[in-house]
Amino acid sequence: MIHRGKREGVCHGGGGWGAWGLRGRAIARTRLARRSEDAGQTRRLLALAAIYDGGSRGEAAKIGGVGLQTVRDWVLAFNAEGPVGLVDGKAPGNAPLLNDERRQALRAIVESGPIPAVHGVVRWRLIDLAQWVFEEFCISISKQTLSRELRALGFRKLSARPRHHAQDAEAMATFKKTSPRALPRSPSATPPASR
Fold this sequence. Notes:
Layout: E1 2-3, E2 6-7, H1 22-35, H2 39-52, H3 57-64, H4 68-81, H5 100-112, H6 116-119, H7 126-137, H8 143-152, H9 169-178
Antiparallel strand pairs: 1-2
Helix pairs in contact: 1-2, 2-3, 3-4
């Protein structure tokens, strides 16, 4: 265990490290570093091995490519959990904006559909639902996040094919019937490919 720049003969959580001498522990960390498949863990183990070989924390920081505070954090992690404490963990990320209760309320409002007199729309758009979530739960949510939440609830975005307001169906049908068919091109009309 390393404490305030001094090497002591005890290393907690290392699985019997205390019985070894300082040199033996450095060799063991070097062996662990060779077998590790995690590049970050390898770098950290080699930095700690340098400390146990008698090097300073500054030298260990150079080996690890970090600052002294980070080396201290590595030592604490190794003492607490052993070599496993030096493996990069997955960052926890942000907490979800909508919990299960709010997701069920969102599901209910989407399934029931908007009431034009109340909601001011005849069909839900993401921006309308985001506004409803804000009014209901005081949560500001982006359209992208709301879209992900709706997909997770089993909803898909449906959009109608765009149609011009003045489009005449009869004129389109007449045009399709009277248009001449395209004639197939003869093979001799196409130029040969150059090599």
